Fold Cytochrome P450.
Amino acid sequence: MSDPQRCHVSLPHRLDPHGVDQHAVNAALRERGAAVPLVLPGGVSAYAVVRHAELAEFLQGPAVAKDSRHFAALHAGDLPAGWPLTAFATVRGMTTADGDEHRRLRTLVSRAFTPRRVEALRPRVRERTRALLDQVADAAARAPDGVVDLRERFALPLPLGVICELLGVAPAYERRLHELSHDIVSTATAPRRARAATEEMYAVLSQVAADRRADPGDDLTSALIAAREEDGDRLSEEELAATLLLVVIAGHETNLHLITNAVRALCAHRDQLARVLAGEVGWDAVVEETLRYDSPVSYFPFRYPTIDLTVGDTVIPRGAPVLASYTAAGRDPLAYGPSADRFDVTRETDVRNLAFSHGPHYCLGAPLARMEATLALGMLYERFPDLALAVPEAGLPPHPSFIGNSTHTLPVRLTGGGAG
């Protein structure tokens, strides 16, 4: 007779497209092994790597690809018609390229996305932060209960404005680009809406590229258009559009969640905030601990083993889609010890968080994200050191996605007296 418990454990986990209770789910999945079978929306079979050491190895494994030509179910015609996650596999650009093609694209983008260009944004990040904090204070003063949604008023417009300025995107496009990127990455979006959002996003970015061709400026889009390798190679139209889409989505969605998650954690851990405000640790340590403790990206699609690949005790079949679970890896007690579930800005560890990935596809925008979040948090708490949640943390609605990890709102009071 079979063991009912063992039968239950062997069942694939069905990922909730609304992103509910991600950390509790992660803890249960880590108990099952380093890699676990999943069911994605539409009934598509997949796997996730959920432990830190195995994920770090998997992300740079020679038998792991990102090109969708390795996606067995896609080429067998086994995916549901209009499957909303298809775009993550089939978009053509750095995120789905391997080997020499990936190196070519990364080299071209790196030549445009230089440290000098990132550092040049620092004064503008300060200026935008200061202006947004003034607006936050005004909104709180006008609200009868003094409550303001810090996510909507601060964590969203800051990185969105910065990334649009970096790309040379007119302010009139900003809000629409966020709405479209939300529909693209939210796994709770209806398939038809997700497809329409992707098409409109490409149309908008194509217009941005056309504007910059007609009137080049000192912006990343103009630099990407001009970027060439020594042999004269350059980004194709499709590659340029895919790169712009990647920069828009990753460049503001990630930091929106990072800033939101950091504030939420500090509100729930006043002792940790006190140590930062006392100067015992810097805001850069807050950013790094937030990236580990509550990664802004959770289950990111897709990679494909090019052979039947053993991860931990699990054999992942060749061509199966695999998601990297950065949130699960970030709280892995095998990597961070028995305190892995605790937010600790004084944490000393040699284990680097994987929030910006690892290996050949490590995020090019990580320095900008770290700089932006460090400045934003420091200036926010310098202005409002008593900031507190206006509702219990458990009542915050999750961001509707298993790709992004955050809350959908962040109601706060700027002068304390909140729900903590």
Remarks:
- Residues 228 and 234 are 5 Å apart (CA to CA).
